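One-letter codes give the sequence; backbone shape is given numerically. An example follows:

. . .
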Amino acid sequence: MSKLPVAFDPLTLPESNATRYPAKFRADNQKRWIRRLSSHARLRNFGVNITRIIPGGQSSARHTHSKQDEFIYVLQGEVVLQTNAGAETMRPGMCVGFPAGGGNAHRFVNRSKADVLLLVVGDRTPGDEISYPDIDNRARMDASGNYVYTRKDGTPHRQRARSKP
C-alpha cells in the first residue's frame, strides 16, 4: 500500500546542474539548475521541472524532440527564446509549446541581470530522439528510459585521453 500524496513546496527541493551531455558540451549548461518536481512526486508518464537559469546561462543546447511534447511557462524573469524563427523575449506569464516531431529547435537564454525561473513540462514517450542542429550531437532514448548521446552520424563521442600517473 502506497502513501497518500503529500503537498510540497517545490522551492525546497534540491537543485542540480548535472547534465548527461558529452563533456565538450557540458560547460554551456552549467549555469542552469533544475528541481525535478515530478520525480519527487514519483510520476512516471510526464516530467515537471522548475529550471533556474542564472545570468549568462542557457536551458540547453537548441534541440527538438521526435516523440515528446514540451511546454514551458515563464514564472520569473525575462528570458530569450531562440527557435528556428529567431529570438523572442518572454516575460512572466508567457508560455510556449513544442509539439513532438515539429522540428522547431529551441532553447532559452538568460541575457538579463537576474535569475529566470521556468516551469517545464514534457512527456516521457519511449523511443524519443533529440536533434541538436547547432552542435554535433544527438540523443536516443534507450530501453531503460535514459538518453544515449552520439555524434550526428551515430558514432560515439570520443573521451579525452587520460594521462598515465
